[in-house]
Amino acid sequence: MCGIAAQFGSSDPALGERMLDRLAHRGPDDQGSAEIGGSWLGHRRLSIVDVEGGHQPLSGDRLMLAGNGEVYNHEDVRDALAARTFSTKSDNEVALHLLEEEDPDALCALEGMFAFVAAGEGGYFVAARDPVGIKPLYWARRGTDVQFASEMRAFDPEWLPAVRPFPPGYHWTPLRGLVRFNRAAPLAVPEPVSDPLADPPEEVAAQVREELIGSVGRQMMGDVPVGVFLSGGLDSSLVAAIAARRLPDGERLPTFAVGTEGSPDLEAAREVARILGTDHHERIYDAEEAIGALPEVVRTIESFDPSLVRSAVPNYLLAEMTAEHVKVVLTGEGADELFAGYEYLRELDPEPLQAELVRTVEGLHNLNLQRCDRVTMAHGLEARVPFLDTQVINFALSLPAEWKLSGPGRPEKLLLRRAFEGWLPEEFLWREKSQFGDGSGAADVLQHHFADSVSEAELAGERSEAEPPVRTREELAYWRFFKEALQGVRTEETVGRFATA
Fold first, then answer.
1. How far apart are alpha carbons 255 and 252 in whole angstroms?
2. How confident is the model at residue 439 (pLDDT cuts 50, 70, 90)?
3. Is 24 left (phi over 0), alpha (psi -120 to 50) or beta?
């Protein structure tokens, strides 16, 4: 997990170093840069795999590469590239060798979360992003010059109006432009089942279980300890239960929770941790601390969407505490999108439900995943999302939507709960869902305080300055912090609820 920056069409090391300086929080362990073929590549490193030898940019026979993220199947890809000579044990190096051997479409062989930039002599250049968009990448074009970076704040002010999200599952080269090489969701539509109210077969529940167990195992890869964000809800509790079982006897899984005193999430996480026998850590915050953190949180997540901001504040405080103990943390992100965990989905019939699940998965990159990446990397902490492993996504979205319907007597995520019967006590396996900001005690405090900080007259006078206009007094308060940090950024192109990239 790192921060990357790059220039194609020109090479200005001083500008590049400014970009890297603004990404220092993403990679406190090391820094590197290189010029090649008229391009410039820069890298800030958080050392997780090949701690001693994985300095970047990585050098091959013809190319250099800077990467952000993790390739979970890198050992399998290395085996397939047996004729190549590897100079490090870095998981990112497999991408470099794939690009030297084949065209960028070969990156579809990689499983993981990543953003890469690579350059070579003769004007060769490639930028690519994982199909889910778990790892961030932005780009900006002015004339023939193109810049890339892990966060919008990395760009110089005059470049900010041109910044756009780089689309997930695509690569870009000067000759071919943008080309899709992979996608988050399968194109095939699942066959409907004859009885929508019938329980899924036992073998399906078993396969759901095996897919998630396999994903957690892959994502515990690394040369440093791995922990789990534990809210006490179903999704994070299942990830923790799987991870705890994979550790050697006598080794305890680090888990981390946050909330206000007496908040439901904090109490539930405490009890789940006790049951699983984890090495549990808590951070208790009050209203004053949440309110004080919010301006920096808005600048960090690079969004002013109220629902995202409210959940980001406790996550930011949680990540700050977690980074004192581990460098890598697993989260429960993505389960609601795959297994229909949101309340509004109860109203949908199977066909529109399937379409909505696909849409939400494909839209995560500039909403929940953006929040997840920014609040953790602000503290030099890598977040991994086992539910959004491409194998899990492909399997979950291939299941008939009828098995994900919920309603009276049929709780949301029934299939996921059935798959893990016996792994958690009943009261936690069947616990009702709450939004993280609500369960941790942040939502009401933030919503009321910042709504009260803006008058209706101010909303009427300023709402049109944002593009598109802000909707509420609370949102206007957050937009002011956003505007201060990223003056000139086009919100309709970059902020989650507006952007389509």
1. 9
2. low
3. alpha
Sequence-distant (≥ 6) Cβ neighbours of residue 443 within 8 angstroms: 310, 311, 435, 437
Q: Helices in 57-201 by DSSP H: which ranges?
A: 74-80, 93-101
- Asked if residue 388 has pLDDT above 60, the reply is yes
Band the pLDDT of 83: cuts 50, 70, 90: confident
pTM above 0.85, yes or no: yes
- Enumerate domains of the chain plus CATH numbers: 2-180 (3.60.20.10), 202-439 (3.40.50.620)
User: What are the tokens at 180?
Assistant: 């899709």
Q: Which residues contact 372 (CB under 8 A, 6 or more apart)?
A: 315, 331, 333, 383, 385
**Given the residues 1, 2, 5, 23, the one annotated as active site:** 2
Which one-letter DSSP state was computed for residue 328?
Answer: E
Distance CA 130, CA 495 (A): 19
Please state the separation of Cα 385 from the chain's center in Å: 7
Report the distance separating Cα 296 and Cα 313, nearest Å.
Answer: 9
Tell me if the bond preceding 468 is cis, omega within 30° of 0. Answer: yes
Give dist(CA 68, CA 498) in Å, integer: 25
- Please say whether the beta carbons of 381 and 327 come within 8 A: yes
Does 108 qualify as catalytic in the annotation?
no
C-alpha–C-alpha distance, residues 1 and 3, integer Å: 7
CA 39 vs. chain centroid, Å, equals: 28
The tens digit of pLDDT for each residue in 351-386 reads: 999 999 999 999 999 999 999 999 999 999 999 999
Question: Helix and strand tally (H, E) in the chain?
Answer: 19, 17
- 145: exposed, middle or buried (C-beta count within 10 Å: 0-12, 13-18, 19+)? middle
**pLDDT tens-digit series, residues 192-234:** 888 877 788 899 999 999 999 999 999 998 878 999 999 999 9
CA distances from 134 to 285, 310, 355, 389, 490 (A): 28, 20, 21, 10, 22
**What are the distances in angstroms from CA 153 to CA 62, 137, 150, 483?**
31, 12, 9, 12
Mean pLDDT across the stretch 242-255? 95
Residue with tokens 């036992």: 202
